[in-house]
Amino acid sequence: MTWCLRSTSVVVPGEVRAATLVITDGRIADVVGLHDAPDGVPVVDVGDLTVSPGIVDSHVHVNEPGRTHWEGFATATRAAAAGGVTTLVDMPLNSVPPTTTVEALQLKRSAAVDQVHVDVAFWGGVTSTDVSSVTALVDEGVCGFKVFLVPSGVDEYGWVDAAGLHAALSASGDLPVLVHAEAPGPLDAAPAPDGRSYPAYLASRPDEAEVVALEMVLAGLRATGGRAHVLHLSSAQGLGVLDQARNEGLRISVETCPHYLSLAAEDIPDGATQTKCAPPVRGRANRELLWEALGSGQIDLVASDHSPAPPSVKALDSGDFGAAWGGIAGVQTALSVVWTEAWSRGFGLTDVARWQSERPAAMAGLPGKGAIAVGNDADLVVWDPWARHVVDAGALAQRHPVSPWHGRTLRGVVHTTYLRGEAVDSSGPARGRLLRRGERA
User: Fold this and answer.
1) Mean of the pLDDT values across residues 114-129?
2) Which of 14, 18, 132, 347 is 20 to 30 A from 154, comparing alpha carbons?
3) What is the number of other CB atoms lying within 10 angstroms of the CB of residue 416?
4) 405-429 pLDDT, tens per residue?
5) Is the pLDDT of residue 256 over 80?
6) First-to-final CA distance of the chain
7) CA 190 to CA 180: how far, in whole Å?
8) Alpha-carbon dihedral of residues 284, 290, 291, 297, nearest 10 degrees?
């Protein structure tokens, strides 16, 4: 089947142009002029609404099976589609069992079948120096492997020391090892969180923990020649270490998250545990340095790190930062949060597409995703970047109504999300597919 999608604002790599997309059997067959649709082909004209590549969110904790009461494939992918996400990559925790073996991956895929409203790929995990499952997981199509350098927050997912990091980098070959880059030494030396105080929580996870962890990653890359991807960079103090790695030609990439680009420690009141994450949201000056790094290419991409939990686990009643789960739910709001902040700093629609679609797809090894280009899947989001909306946590499609952006006015309203050329109807049958690294859907 062939049809066309027409807009005066289509975000193709490097530019925004008036164009008509010719879509055949779920793929982009051509990108032609605004009035150059083939004769006799149905045309959907969205006027001045923007057509961007669907968001590829490479950092999502779906939590199913095992903690489906925190989130699940049905709710997570409905929220994703509502926010313009067409592909997500699921983290190996906080599901039970974690995705550290082929058997666990098969359980996760079985749980996801017929539930996903967007395409879903999977990360594997390494939790010790035992890397005996890595090759089999690679053969099963995982996108790479996640390691923690400090306790993960859940007992069933262990953390690794330098030897474990080196083992993972050695075993993973050309696949990235995703690193939660905080080091135990600085965390052990820091004061413990103190109840409702956000400054006390911030002090408990100092910048130094990220810097030392990044130095560990560099040492591992030098020793092994492996490939690393640094997750959720929150401290701008680590940028110098990353520059050193790239100057040495080491294979490294780095992401930050919408919450680090939009929130600021000075604005977080005591007891606001909906903002708790690890590493933490830092100060305004640090935030602006992250934006500079994103704009210059020091930071490669933006991913949500969607890590939801029930209100009780987030300790919303007590506001105790020490007791609260350290994760932010943000898959549905990621596009509008990033766009709101990016636009205010002079960035454009092509920048957002590069950060949230093109580069995550490339990092995770998902061909046909992340850009409006001939031959790619017709994964698209039709949205109004200029319309404003007030975030209502209770109206989000995720399982629990918890969001640090509740009540905040954001730019960007999604009208329609297309998955392989078909509009996603989250109330209807789930049409998402389970992806393997390097293979087309």
Assistant:
1) 98
2) 132
3) 18
4) 999 999 999 999 999 999 999 899 9
5) yes
6) 17
7) 18
8) 170
User: For the segment 166-186, what is each residue's pLDDT rounded down to a tens digit?
Assistant: 999 999 999 999 999 999 999
Token pair 């960079």 is found at 233
Give the Cα-Cα-Cα angle 305, 144, 186 (nearest 5 degrees).
55
Tell me the average pLDDT of the chain. 98
Residue type, 386: W
Q: How many angstroms separate the CA atoms of 56 and 417, rounded?
A: 12
Question: Band of the pLDDT at 276, cuts 50, 70, 90?
Answer: very high
pTM of the model: 0.98
Residues 86/26, Cβ–Cβ less than 8 Å: no
Q: Binning pLDDT at 50, 70 and 90, where does residue 62 land?
A: very high
**Shortest CA distance to 352 belongs to which of 369, 335, 333, 373?**
335
Query: Is residue 194 over pLDDT 90?
Result: no
Q: How far is CA 430 from CA 91, 118, 393, 422, in A?
A: 21, 8, 23, 12
Q: Are 398 and 75 in contact (CB under 8 A)?
A: yes
Report how far residue 234's alpha carbon sits from residue 257's, in angstroms, rounded to the nearest whole number.
8
